[in-house]
Design brief:
Elements (H helix, E strand, L loop, with lengths): L9 H18 L4 H19 L12 H4 L1 E3 L5 H8 L5 H7 L4 E6 L2 E6 L6 E5 L40
Antiparallel strand pairs: 1-2, 2-3, 3-4
Helix pairs in contact: 1-2, 2-4
Pfam family, one: BTG
Protein name: BTG1 protein
GO biological process, one term: negative regulation of cell population proliferation
Length: about 160
């Protein structure tokens, strides 16, 4: 069974929601209050969606279910949160990278822009009883771009930290 009531997934969900919010902030003239509300709604949507699909003892189990994907269509969880601040799916597809995959798993949140881009780690935490991993902040981080080229994403992403 998955973890009940969002237990143990707050850091991961918060990191994912903050990342998508930062992408919107960089791309559009959306005011901070709307962005704050979007982030809260996305966090709640993710918590509800992952509630019975969160397996800290088997972090890769359910990974596909927890994957957030923007391709030719908008991910429904992002679309639902954006609808609360009046952003349509069509407008979101214009504002966010045209190919974005975000994996929200126990102990790690990572993303890829473009189908052949590098995977960047946003959040990583040691697994209980597992080997200790190096904190994300101590590694070389991705250069954060103010403007993301939606037609031809950079293939040089390696990691990006997002304050939560």
């Amino acid at each position: 069974r998955g973890a009940p009531s969002g237990a143990g997934m707050w850091a991961e969900i918060s990191t994912a929601a903050a990342f998508v919010t930062r992408l919107l902030r960089a791309a559009a003239g959306i005011d901070e209050e709307q962005l704050r509300f979007f982030r809260e709604c996305l966090q709640e949507a993710l918590r509800e969606h992952y509630e019975h699909h969160w397996f800290p003892r088997q972090p890769s189990k359910g990974s596909g279910y927890r994957c957030i994907r923007i391709g030719h269509q908008m991910d429904p969880l992002i679309g639902k949160a954006a609808g609360t601040i009046g952003l349509s799916h069509e407008r979101l597809l214009q504002l966010l990278p045209s190919e974005l995959t975000l994996w929200v798993d126990p102990f790690e949140v990572s993303y890829r822009i473009g189908d052949d881009g590098s995977i960047c780690v946003l959040y990583e935490s040691p697994q209980p009883g597992g080997k200790t991993t190096e904190p994300v902040e101590s590694r070389t981080s991705c250069t954060e771009e103010r403007t993301i080229d939606r037609a031809s994403p950079s293939k040089n992403y390696s990691m990006m930290t997002v304050p939560i």
